[in-house]
Amino acid sequence: MGVMTRWLDPDEQRTWRAFLTASRALMETLDRELQHDAGMPHAYYEILVRLSEAPDRRLRMSELAELTGSSRSRLSHAAARLETSGWIRREDCPTDRRGQVAVLTDEGFATLAAAAPGHVEGVRRHLFDALSPAQVDQLRRISETLADHLTDSGPN
Amino acid sequence: MGVMTRWLDPDEQRTWRAFLTASRALMETLDRELQHDAGMPHAYYEILVRLSEAPDRRLRMSELAELTGSSRSRLSHAAARLETSGWIRREDCPTDRRGQVAVLTDEGFATLAAAAPGHVEGVRRHLFDALSPAQVDQLRRISETLADHLTDSGPN
DNA sequence: CGCCGATAGTTGAACGCTCAACAAAACCGG
DNA sequence: CCGGTTTTGTTGAGCGTTCAACTATCGGCG
């Protein structure tokens, strides 16, 4: 490690702060909207989405944590809450006695189905509608690059 | 409001999920790094930064909330904690008896100075180093567009 | 088989954020 | 100057996340 810090030049500074402002505002807005009209934070919505897409609407906790990019602990707490809300149910895994499978209940699916249109609408309004098609493409490439870069070295 | 939802097409879906993954991973990584080697979350770091840049290293709570994009409540809680850490101090505002000014203490400044190089290094490693100069420029434009779009209609 | 390190998942405490309610002072029209 | 509205900042409860510690099981090697 060198002794001199390479500070951000004014352009980088501007980029970094704009990114912080935008991504924070975006996530907070969507979180608030989802909390308001579905009674759950965005993170929980994502869990239900992943479950709804899985075969039989069921996933190992471990898989689910991977897919939603959350720690096992976070998922465990979230699952506890989702379970008392009646949106998921946890069962023992038949092939691994340590394991648990999270299952989306019918009630959970219904709640998700009710929340989805409004949320998608929000994502459109706050993200896609503001950008040109070219920018959407740029954002995809940038995000995929960053995601790769981060998950290479960044553990959970 | 129409009755039909315009769902995200596969490309939009992919973009949206990549963005979620990337921004979440980025923020979590930086947060963890900052928490680990400066003992504060990224949000608190930002508060100290803004104060350090202000004339006399002091700002009205209200200004500070604006600059850091946080609610008054959030800032109030944060300030309470930063004050017990000895990094800021709160004084009555001379021109408005409702007001408070947050002042960065010498100890706060020193802590910030100690944390900054490592954090900047992190931002470089996890963000700028992964992108081409063109992508950095694209990211700036995209972020500024989104930030404008969101702060137009999105209150706190 | 028997042990030992890895893996799966949970738990509780500490902490930060949100939301709604609140107090106090400032502003402003009449 | 008076009364209502707005602005400023704080507070407490409830919730979600982190981190470290812990239990239980699995997998593999001797």
Summarize the structure.
The structure is a homodimer of 156-residue chains. The first copy, chain A, is mainly α. Chain A is 67% helix and 8% strand.
Explain what you see.
Two copies of one chain form a homodimer. Chain A has 156 residues and is mainly alpha-helical. The first copy, chain A, has a domain at 25-131: Winged helix-like DNA-binding domain superfamily/Winged helix DNA-binding domain (Arc Repressor Mutant, subunit A, Orthogonal Bundle), CATH 1.10.10.10. Chain A contains six helices and three strands; from the N terminus they run H-H-E-H-H-E-E-H-H. Chain A has helices spanning 10-38, 42-53, 61-68, 72-84, 106-126, 133-153; strands at residues 58-60, 88-92, 100-104. A three-stranded antiparallel beta sheet of chain A has the order 1-3-2. In chain A, helix 1 runs antiparallel to helix 5 and helix 3 packs across helix 4. Chain A is globular. The two termini of chain A are 25 Å apart. The mean pLDDT of chain A is 95. At the A-B interface, helix 1, helix 5 and helix 6 of A face helix 1, helix 5 and helix 6 of B. Chain A binds a DNA duplex (30 and 30 nucleotides) through residues 31-32, 35, 41, 43-44, 60-62, 65, 70-78, 80-81, 93, 96-100. Chains A, B: GO terms for molecular function: DNA-binding transcription factor activity. Chains A, B: It holds the Pfam family MarR_2. Chains A, B: Residues 12-148 form the HTH marR-type domain.
